[in-house]
Amino acid sequence: MPEAQHEHGMMTNRSHDEAERQNNVRTLRQSLLRKFASGSREQFYREIKPAYEKQKGAPLDDYRQIREEMLKGTYMKFQMGFHRVVQELMFESLVSPVEEQLPDLIQRSKDMEQNLGTLELDPDLELPRYITAVDIHCQPGGFTAEHCEDDIAAGAIYDRAIHIYNSGSSGMTDMAGRIVTQYLDAIFPELQPIRILDMGCTIGQSTAAYVKRWPDADVHAIDVGPALLRYGHARAEALGHKIHFSQQSAEHTQFEDGSFDLITSNILAHETSTKAWPAIIKECHRLLRPGGIMIHADLPQLNEVDPYRQFIYTNETHYNNEPFWTKFRTLDLKKVTTDAGFLPENVIRDFSQVKGGKDQAKIDAAIETSRSAGHGAPAGSPLGMAFIIGIKE
Amino acid sequence: MTEEKKIKLPRVAKGPRPMMFEDEANDILLSMNVSLLNELIVTRQRLDAVERVLESKKRYEPSRCERVHAR
Fold first, then answer.
1. Does a structural domain hold residue B61?
2. Do the domain assignments include residue B1?
C-alpha cells in the first residue's frame, strides 16, 4: 500500500482535484511497472525469444537486437508510449499548482529560516552539460532552471515527483538514503562519521536519512541546481534537519583535502558522464580522510544484468530523457575507482561481493527495501541498488 | 499599486520526444487517451466527493439518481 507523503511546511498545497490528478498518475505508473512490464517480459520469454532463436539458429542476447524484435509488436510500442505519457502527465499535474503558488512558496521558503543549517549559492558556477543538455526525467525546466529571483520551483516540483515516481513507497521520500544507512550499518557496524558529504543531493531528501542516523554529524550536501538547493534548505529547516547546502559540482568542490569521514551519492552516478564520473571519484579520494568511506548507490551496470533487463534499462535513455544513461552503464566502475587512487582491496562492488562477518539478514532487508521502492525497476530483479564503495587508504 | 506579473513555468521538457508508432498520429492519440483517462478519474473522484458531502447533509439519496432519465 502506498504511504501518504509527509506534509511538511514547504509542501505545495493541492486542491481536491489536483491531489487526485497526482494520485492517479501514481496509480497509472504502478500499472505500468507491474502489469505492462510483466506482460512484455512474458511475451519476450514465451514468444519472441524462442521464435527468433528457432528462425535464426542463434541466441537473442543483445539488448539492441531485443529492442528491435520487441518493437516489431504493438504491445511494447504501447508500453513505451504509455511510459512516456505517464511521465509527462506526472509533471503536468505537478507544475500547475507550483506555478499558481510560486510567490507564496518563495515567501514561505524565507519564513522557514531558523538557522539550523546553511545555504550557499554560487551564481558563477559553470553548470555541467550532462545536467543541462536535456531536461532529465522530462521535468520541464530540468534541475537547474531559475524562473525568477529566489526561485524554488524546481525543488517544489521535484519533492512531490519523487513520491509519485517511487509509487508512494515512503512518506518521507528518504527511502534511498535509508537503503544506504541500512547497508552501511550492516557492513561497517563501527562507523561513526563526524563529517558527511552528500553529492548530487537535489532537495536533500536522502541527506535527511543521514542526519537522522548520525544526529551529531556535520552534514553537507551539494548540487548544481540553485532552485533545488533553496527549496532543499527551506525543507530541511521546516523538518528540523541541520544540513549545510551549497551549490557545487561534485567534480571539483571547495572543501579541503581529507575533510570527510563519509561521502555518499544516490542515483547521481548515471546522471553524470563517462568523463565526469572518474573526476567525481578522484574528488572523493581527495576529500576523504584516511579510513574514510565513500558509497555511491545506483542501479546495476549493463554487464551485471541479463540481456532482457539491459534492454529495459536502456529504454530510459529514450523515454525518460536520460542521454548519458546507456553509455554510463558500460563504465567499469571498479576500474574507475582504482584509477582514482583507491587500493583494489579497498573497493567493494554491490551486495554480492559482501562476504564474511557481515549481517546478511540486514543486507537482505536493505535489498528488499530497495526493491519495494521501485529502484530494482520491474519486478523479478536479482538485484536492488548496486553500490560502489571505496575506503581511503 | 503595481500588479505582480505572474511567473510562467515551462510545461514541455527540453529534449527529443520519442515517437513509437510509424504514424505520429497514433502517439498523439495515445497521449490524448491517457490524459482523458486521467481527467475522467479526477471527475469521478470529484463526483464521489460531492455525493459524500450531500449524503452527509441528508440532501441526497443515490437511488434517486437512477430514476432520473436522460431526455
1. yes
2. no
